[in-house]
Amino acid sequence: MSSLSRELVFLILQFLDEEKFKETVHKLEQESGFYFNMKYFEDEVINGNWDEVERYLGGFTKVDDNRYSMKIFFEIRKQKYLEALDKHDRSKAVEILVKDLKVFASFNEELFKEITQLLTLENFRENEQLSKYGDTKSARAIMLVELKKLIEANPLFRDKLQFPNLKSSRLRTLINQSLNWQHQLCKNPRPNPDIKTLFVDHSCGQPNGARAPSPANNPLLGSIPKPGGFPQLGAHGPFQPAPTPVAPLAGWMSNPPAVTHPAVSGGAIGFAAMLKHPRTPSAANPSMDYPSGDSDHVSKRPRPVGLSEEVNLPVNMMPVTYPQSHSYPQDDFHKAVARTLSQGSAPMSMDFHPVQQTLLLVGTNVGDIGLWDVGTKERLVVRNFKVWELGKCSMALQAALVKDPTVSVNRIIWSPDGTLFGVAYSRHIVQIYSYHGGDDIRQHLEIDAHVGGVNDIAFAHPNKQLCIITCGDDKTIKVWEATSGTKQFTFEGHEAPVYSVCPHYKENIQVHLFNCFRWKDKGMAL
Questions:
Q1: CA 409, 107, 132 angle in degrees (round to 5)?
Q2: Which of 15, 144, 250, 453 has the most CB atoms within 10 Å of its CB?
Q3: How much is the pTM?
């Protein structure tokens, strides 16, 4: 769907809300998937309308879309199950267990068995982990806090949690503008046109013997205010016609003129900086589902849990000149911004392609990776984090993802020739992609590399064989064959997590060394 069609849906949502078509509003939100109404979702959760909660969620995500979605649905169904047990409705609890919760057994069989065993208890609070479970109302409120964190961190909900900043009755205003425009095009415009339908274009008929009014007497033409004009469709004030007509319909053409983006100066290369901007506190009225542009306080999109009180979205490209280039003075090295790229979440690691130097890889705090052409400011590729083959991963990783699905990119890096790139994540694994030009990236290897976070990744080629080096929270450094992912070496003996590796190869020594840095004991090792 085009961006203008998407914006039209938002205008319709605002109109329906203003006209109090509440059920229709939420149905359109769910069917379009453009705007997730957190206030409506909260009300349904607090009221325990579980069927509606899952139906509404279904317009935005499914159980198996990613780890965040899986956790969201699991928490909802677990709460529904516990409430049935609390009411001693065993048959209902068994039905929920079989129909709703069994789908999670393939991801964590031990957890499913533990949930099943609750059926054998007279009071499920006898289970140590549920001993602090209060009443239904408080349990729903606690769960809702967790659900909101998961939704805000879920990449599928990105840009869907904030309603656009619109002035009230925006759709009515646009219709009035259109009617005025149509009236200006009438061959015989009347001073007080009678609008009876929107189904066809407006046209003033020529009365018998009447002369067309001059522009000076027409209240819709010229700048002199006169009585008359179109009746307004809503109480949002009179429409003021623009003195200089423009072509407002050009944006709706199927083939709009192409807009070219300026390229980076031929003599310049760049480096990327991850910037942070102050966060504007939200003072929106929590009872309002749809914020209005008439207010000075516009609600901002909530940040994922764990982030600071700042929003760091853009990636700024700072120009660096070759010695022979005079595009930028040397004293402007840290001042002139050549490109600002909006990744959508906080960048954590970046790397330029070793050959095609306008290609930039970006990894973010929610596990996303992006590939940008900084010359055209075009994002060629975006990938949300997803375990490719969960069944082949260790049980420790599977359990960790079910318990807490939050994953961040710790490091993203190109191979020396730019045909591969690797991503080290904050949970156990590294993923290796192959790059085939343009927007063509393909899954190459997924390695369950370390217990805990994988803090760094690097490429090396001892004996002309490409290898992958990783280090992690488990105090080890490991070397992997880059074609098959076979582990070749494990270096142990560190007293603290290893946070950085720097491979080094000497031609006369058929081994490779690693510089590693450990934060806790502040040690360097070779």
A1: 90
A2: 453
A3: 0.45
Cα–Cα distances in angstroms (integers) from residue 337 to residues 76, 189, 326, in the given order: 46, 52, 16
> CA dist 464 to 250, 450, 469, 510, 526, Å?
58, 26, 15, 10, 21
Strand ordering across the sheet containing 378-383: 347-352, 359-364, 369-373, 378-383
All CATH 2.130.10.10 domain ranges of the chain, comma separated, are: 347-525
| Total Cβ atoms within 10 A of residue 368 | 23
The alpha carbon torsion through 63, 67, 72, 75 (nearest 10 deg) reads: 100
- Which residues partner with 277 through β-bridges? 311
**What is the rounded CA–CA span in Å between residue 449 and residue 73?**
29
8 A C-beta contact, residue 419 and residue 477:
no
pLDDT digits (tens, 9 = 90+) for 428-437: 999 999 999 8
Q: Are 377 and 358 in contact (CB under 8 A)?
A: no
Class of domain 347-525: mainly beta
Question: Based on C-alpha coordinates, what's the Rg of the chain?
Answer: 30
Q: Distance of alpha carbon 126 from its chain centroid, rounded?
A: 40
**Tokens linked to 124:** 């499920």
